[in-house]
Design goal:
The chain is 28% helix and 23% strand. The protein is α+β, with helices and mostly antiparallel strands. The chain has one domain: GMP Synthetase, Chain A, domain 3. A three-stranded mixed β-sheet has the order 1-2-3. Strand 2 (41-47), helix 2 (56-67) and strand 3 form a beta-alpha-beta unit. Helix 1 (5-17) crosses helix 2 (56-67). The longest helix is centred in the first third of the chain and has 13 residues, at 5-17. The radius of gyration is 13 Å and the shape is globular.
């Protein structure tokens, strides 16, 4: 697939979780000197009805399930901020 990493992450999460909002942030520049010179370090902020009634760990598992086969070749580290609609 010819999509860049951020676009691929966005596409996978959108398909799996139908988010109301989704932000994918490349944080590679914060990790220069780490494995792969920081490539593959991302943060996602996602609001989805799929998270309603779920614990934080269940929410993270849903995100990881959407991205699972991207680890470790294309995705090295992922920070997740997952909320249900209406949560602050």
């Amino acid at each position: 697939m010819s999509l860049d990493r951020a676009a691929l992450i966005r596409e996978r999460i959108a398909a799996a979780l139908a988010p109301q909002t989704l932000e994918v942030i490349d944080e590679g520049h914060l990790h220069v000197g780490h494995a792969g010179e920081g490539k593959g370090h991302f943060r996602v902020r996602v609001v989805s009805a799929a998270f309603t009634g779920k614990t934080p760990i269940q929410r993270h598992r849903l995100v990881y399930a959407a991205l699972g086969d991207l680890f470790p070749e294309r995705l090295h580290a992922l920070a997740i901020e997952a909320r249900a609609p209406g949560e602050g």
